[in-house]
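Chapter summary example.
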Amino acid sequence: MTVTLRRWGWRRALATVLGAQLLFWSFYALIVLGFHPAVAWGDYRLPAGRAGLASTNGPTGAWAAGLSEPAVLHIPGWQPAILYPAHMTLLSPSERSAAGGAWSLTCLRSPCGATDAVYAGPYDRIGKAAGWERFQRFDMVWLAIAVEGLLGMALLVLLPLSRFSRLQTITGLFMILVSADAWFTAFGADALPYAWFPLLRYGVEYLMLATVALTVNAFAGWQARAARIALACSAIAFTVLIAAMLVRGDVAPVVPLLDATALALLSAYGIAALLRMSLAAPGPAIRVMAILLVGITSTVWDLLIHPAPSGPMLQASVLTPTLTTFLILFELALQGRQLSREADEARTDLERQVLEQDASLLRSSSLLRHQERRIAIDAERQRLLRDMHDGVGGILTHLLLDTREGRLTHAEIGEALQSAVDDLRNMASAFDAADEPIDEALAMFRERMWVRLARSGIAFDWRCQLASPAPRLDAPRLLSLYRLLQEGIANTLRHGQATRIALMAEPADGDRLLVTLSDNGVGFDPLDARGSPGEGRGLTNMQRRATQMGGDLRIESAPGQGVRLALAVPIEDSWKRKS
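The structure predicted for these 579 residues follows.
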């Protein structure tokens, strides 16, 4: 603890301890000196062994200092009077002549406290002196009982505000037990006059001492083992009291030993706990030590230094619970303020960390979006190259080989070049119309194809029966649709001998889109076409493109009845949600 105190500061520690002592003894001196007795000590005290009081003209009163039970006062020449603790009694002269002898005070119930400090004199001055004793012995005790009890109950009632703090709970119970112990000590014997009352009184006292240990334990950092030991010691003390009552019928012989043992154990544990506490929190440890020293010095004052009954009668230990309670509450307030400051610092640090995390996440998100954009661009580039290789590249490659070998006529070369140009236009249109509804995308396809078909003498009809807004297809699926329709129109131009081609879009069952391409040409037998070498390649390509789109293609034709291509394409969920 020396190293800790050196770090915290010996001067601050000493100032804290002396400040608590100064506060307590200033309060005690204010009470004692501010409410001094109205009689000079000794001026009206009855002399021992003598009659002690002559007849007076004014009202005369009597008061016995330190009386705990009623007693009868006999003064020669005066009527016998009953004196009560901390009360003045009016004396009346006796009609009989004063007999010889000295005055006496006889207890009605033994023991009744001091029987030699009896004062008699003017009614008003003796009454003020008795009132002063009543204030010290009873009013101050009731004040301590009320303050301790109310503060203890207030702490327990306010537990939800502190989220049921263990320290606040134990402190509240400690204050209630201090209040109960003060009541039992000062008034319990009169209010509960039965044989087993000492068991109740001292049982509450030792339970209170156990809560003192629990409070120190909570202050110094809770240890469950120390708490169980404190409660076990209280139970042992109570068991010893029960055994003393059963064996001897009185607890008086064992109480001094139990008191000494309890105080020794409590002091040893308090010092050990405060030493442990000082390693982490020297400031609170010193303040708790200052509170304990107030209790110790007040007890030493009452036992060793407190003046005789002829002097001030207010015991310092009567004020100790009330003042130490306020000191404990002050310490709780300091710790609460410290916890609040630490919470504010932790919240500020957490906010700073959150801001840093937000900035980091924002940078990561921006980087991730950039990477996703690059990946999408690379994927689109790869798909575009693949489409060009499969479409235009394939057409031009076959055209180059056939041209070198001289297998194509000029008309066939022109048709192949036209197919390459058409595929390039399909790719451009698919990219342009990828964000457009399907009806607009097909209308663009019809506008691109009808001029070419018109030069061949073929009419191109377009109808759309889709609800607005129409669904959309992504660029890859739209390109596959364009190529499929392009292949069907090319077959019609090569083999169909048709005069009219019709393109229609309509809804189909199961959230699908139905696109049909039909002509009025000569038709063919699909089975014979697939079975003939080289003739069914266009139909196979169309089936492959339909499969790439996730759709279903039906080819309906017969000789002399034209051709009908029916493609059912599933609609994407994203486009359904947008609709």
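To summarize the output: The chain is about 65% helix and 10% strand.
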